[in-house]
Amino acid sequence: NSAACPSARASREAATIAGRATRLSRALASRAMASSVAAPAAPRALPTYPESKPSDTADVLHGTTVPDPFRHLEEVGSDETKAWVAAQVDCTQGYFESAGIAGRASEIAQKLTSVWDYDKVYPPHKEGEWYYFAKKVGTANQPVVMRAREATLEGLASAEPFLNVNEDYPSGTVALSAIAYSDDGKYVAYGLSKGGSDWFQIRVRRTSDGVDLEDIVPWARYSSISWRKDGAGFFYNRYRADPGVTLPSLRREGEPAPTLADPRADAAASAPAAAGGGGVEAGMETGANTDQMVYYHELGTHPSSDRLVYQAEDPEWIMGVEVTDDGKYLLVCPGSGCDHVNRVFVADISGEAWAAWLAAADEAAAASPTPGAVAVGVGPQMPLRRLVDDFRGEFEYLTNEGTLFWFKTNLDAPRGRVITLTLPGADADDVAWLAAGFDAEVAVPESPTGRGEVLESACITGDSGLEGARPVLILRYLADVVSSVRIYDPSNTAAGFSEVALPAPGSASRTSARRDASEVFFAFESLVHAGSVFRLGLADAAPLLTPGASIACEAVLHTAVPGHDPDDYVSEQSFFESKDGTKVPLFLCRHKDAALPARTLLYGYGGFTISLPPYFSAARTVWMKELGGVYALANIRGGGEYGEEWHRAGSLRTKQNTFDDFCAAAEHLQRTGVTTPALTAIQGGSNGGLLTLACSLQRPELFGAVISQVPVADMLRFHRFTIGSAWCTDYGNAEKSEEDFRYMLTYSPLHNVKPVAEGGQTLPATLICTADHDDRVVPLHTYKMLATLQSVAGASPGQTRPLLGRIEVDAGHGAGKPLSKVIQEVAELYAFMEHELAA
Q1: Of the residues 466, 622, 773, 830, which has the maximum number of CB atoms within 10 A of its CB?
Q2: What's the sign of the alpha-carbon dihedral 726, 727, 732, 736?
Q3: Is 618 in contact with 115 (CB distance < 8 Å)?
Q4: Active site annotation includes 813
Q5: Of all residues in the chain, what percent are helix, strand and coil, respectively (each to 5)?
Q6: Catalytic residue among 774, 781, 810, 835
């Protein structure tokens, strides 16, 4: 219930290069070398690369001619590109077969299947009479939504399945991508995506009997879902139907076609405009995503009758939408790119105001050429008052008491704080509304203990209506990349901040709370602790709220990984100096019996304010325990580990700091005897894929192997494809700014590949991974990068290591990837790393 103009934030984070795939991408990255048998002693014979035919295509940017010889590979659906991709798949598979990597991958896949065969439960949340939670069930391809009557150890252990896409879609390629419950818990709206695409379709399930309604809402993407208080319908984000793209059918086998009447005069003829008109399958297109809109869907009606709430003035805005806790207001929060900033627009959706807007929308529909419906993007938009009408900071809605609103913000507080704003009266003019947006009161100051901690999340709960109950703030902080959870009572400021006792240094996440509840749930894990779910009963905690008090919480669920003992491992945090003297955190983990120097996997991300706290990976335990390897996690600049200042120090025209930090991490590991250059592997996904490519080109002597997953490689053209324009806030725009162009050209991987002279410094063994349905970082980045590497460096006499690609079918950027595909991918990455890092 504390999602917020976090609908704004959630939508923006979905649009970031990592977005909802972040945890899965990190999990894949962390598992990149595990196996249990010594590497096969196969010779490093280089493959024969497929021919990549260059052209004389070039752009002139700011007076500079920039060749783009493999521009034709941007046509990902052309016969020529498909043939080239097939040849690359054959090349990689041929190398894997001849080097013994394929056989090893089969062995490792069996071991991974065994290691991953455990259950993991995520924090529950109460909706109506049930507690709902997600559960990873053994080796099932997708998590299952479970529910229980009681949130106790016994109650959650006996929970029943409620939403199981593994049964509904046995292929494993359909994933749950969004979920929202009506306030009374009677309905749940959930999004389904196929093949890893960011497109999803919204369905509605009745919770009393688990039956789906006929409502199916298409063309949602980077979307919030927020219900009206009365449960009559929900608000969501959508784009116009693309006549050149076909959405997949997500009806289950044997499920009848919907019978909801389409109000358009010629529904059959106009159906392509609503459901996609043909052409490429959704997820395989590359065109820019623009003109997102907010719509309202009323239950039991055809989606073509949905009412337009708001269409952004700027075609590149991505919006969050949320109904306030009291149901009186709708918040629409446009965001700019992937920066953590947003505007705040407010609409009254109660009583007469709601009725008047419905009447105006219905009148427009009745007058339209297709009676009963209005063309997408047309209609009387909802009257919105502008509380914040610029991008000076992030405003994440927490709750409200009438017109007093609580927000988590980074405004004048790069490490985060909590403020309150008071809405002016309905009759106030626009000037008064904008003035109110500047009149903030500080409820929780930035870094209140003076330790420089970053406020990661905040929610208000405890207002259960019971005698003596009062709302309190649950605050989750990050200090030197280690979590803490604190309780603060705004009605008793003298009590200060009480801290929740955590089992060890590690990562707390997924805080789950409702304003009208008396309990809070959160997850905890570390590099060696597989994870637990904790419950904090506020009625029990309230008498203990005193300055500096330590509040105990109850563990209601533990994740048990067969054969895993945390005491078998050594984990530690250290700090190293980067090139400019900046101190950067580094986590290390290894088996207690590991001998050094050892094969070491160094992972990083460094972008979009995304923090990488220590987290658990079952597959990583195989790498450390049976191979004697070391895992290293570098918290480099560009991330959010130390707030917005840390982010800004590794973005735009300071992006080189990110690469310098990562290379300095490798040098530190090698200087301290943990590993050697020949035994050092680096891995990252998305923005982290850019990181590993840039570092391997700038400092190839530091690394023995490189895994770059779904990377951004063409820094001069990324903004032209799907949601790429949103990343300009982190990278810049080479077409619009000459300064950006000059700077980005110095590190853009695609533009910094050079021939390797005989006897010169070879590039490390490199495997670039992508997927055909990645419609976030489209696969053309990998295609062009791979063609350039092979044609320039790979054709050089001094290149002695393989430069290969791994191209997945029916998968996307990472989110929703079936576990069976994850296992196969990780097994092949392990085997590749094992072979290429052989001493």
Answers
A1: 830
A2: negative
A3: yes
A4: yes
A5: 25, 30, 45
A6: 774
Q: What angle do CA 591, 618, 589 make, to 5 degrees?
A: 30
Query: Does the pTM exceed 0.85?
Result: yes
Please state, rounded to an integer, the average pLDDT across all residues of the chain: 89
Report the distance separating Cα 284 and Cα 244, nearest Å: 11
Q: Are 247 and 239 in contact (CB under 8 A)?
A: no
Helix axes 79-98, 819-836, angle to 10 degrees: 60
**Is 686 known to be catalytic?**
yes
Which residues, in sequence order, are bridge partners of residue 707?
683, 767
Q: Which amino acid is at 802?
A: P
Distance CA 463, CA 376 (A): 40
Is residue 612 helix, strand or coil? Answer: coil
Q: Binning pLDDT at 50, 70 and 90, where does residue 820 land? A: very high
**Three-state SS sequence of 411-471:** CCCCCCEEEEEECCCCCCCHHHHHHHCCCCEEEECCCCCCCCCEEEEEEEECCCCCCCCCC
Residue 829's nearest CA partner among 656, 684, 645 is 684
**Residue 129 Cα to chain centre, angstroms:** 30
- Is residue 731 classed as helix, strand or coil in its secondary structure? helix
* 285-296: pLDDT as tens digits: 999 999 999 999
Instruction: Report the distance separating Cα 664 and Cα 782, nearest Å.
Output: 26
- For 10, 542, 547, 553, 624, the CA distances from 470, given in Å and listed in that order, are 28, 9, 18, 19, 47
Q: How far apart are CA 674 and CA 570, in angstroms?
A: 13
Residue owning tokens 């608000």: 235
Please report the sign of the dihedral spanned by the C-alpha atoms of residue 614, residue 620, residue 626, residue 632: negative
Q: What are phi and psi of 437, to 5 degrees?
A: -70, -15
Instruction: Tell me the C-alpha to C-alpha distance, in Å, between residue 234 and each of 215, 327, 347, 399, 462.
Output: 12, 12, 15, 19, 26
3-state secondary structure of 689: helix
Is the pLDDT assigned to residue 541 strictly greater than 70?
Answer: no
Q: Among 305, 686, 696, 725, which one carries the catalytic annotation?
A: 686
Which of the residues 529, 647, 668, 813 is marked catalytic?
Answer: 813
Say which residue the tokens 């789950």 belong to: 512
- Confirm if 241 and 218 have CB atoms less than 8 A apart: yes
Residue 540 has pLDDT above 50, yes or no: yes
Helix (H) or strand (E) holding 782: helix 780-788
Q: Is 114 a catalytic residue?
A: no
